[in-house]
Amino acid sequence: MINETYTRSDSDQHSLNQSFHTSHGEHDHDHDGSTHAHVHDEESLRRIVNRLSRIEGHIRGIKTMVQESRPCPDVLVQVAAVRGALNRVARVILDEHLTECIGRAAEEGNMEAEIEQLKTALDRFLP
């Protein structure tokens, strides 16, 4: 397995956190017309970003393997490892969404909108 590390500076980490929050943006309007931000625990975000950084390094390693004409079976094994790692990250994100975001939506009374957004995301995510 290729094990290439990739580290980010604190400013890169903050930028990624901001990007994550921005890409998840504001949710649909609550019943009273207000919106709420998609907020996650900083420690959780750090763990997810760290996992994604390792995957990013792993993908660069696979690219190097291809450029060096390494045996196809070896490359495929590494692609499978990346696929598994991405699936594990997706699972962490889904678990957090179910516990944090859905729970918050239930408290705020906009569970239906949150469930619809999740269904839309799962339709794109699942094969």
For the secondary structure, the number of strands is: 0
User: Any idea of the CATH topology?
Assistant: Methane Monooxygenase Hydroxylase, Chain G, domain 1
Whole-angstrom Rg = 18 Å
Number of domains: 1
Task: Report the CATH C-level class.
Answer: Mainly Alpha
Structural class category? mainly alpha
3D shape: elongated
The CA-CA distance between the termini, in Å, is: 27 Å
Mean pLDDT: 78
The CATH homologous superfamily is called Metal-sensitive repressor, helix protomer
The CATH architecture can be named as Up-down Bundle
Largest sheet: none
DSSP helical segment count: 4
Proportion of helical residues: over 70%
Percentage of residues in DSSP E strands: under 5%
In the predicted model, the low-confidence regions spanning at least 5 consecutive residues are 1-36
SSE succession:
HHHH
GO molecular function: DNA binding; metal ion binding
Protein name: Copper-sensing transcriptional repressor CsoR
Organism: Coleofasciculus chthonoplastes PCC 7420
InterPro entries: Metal_Tscrpt_repr (IPR003735), Metal_Tscrpt_repr_sf (IPR038390)
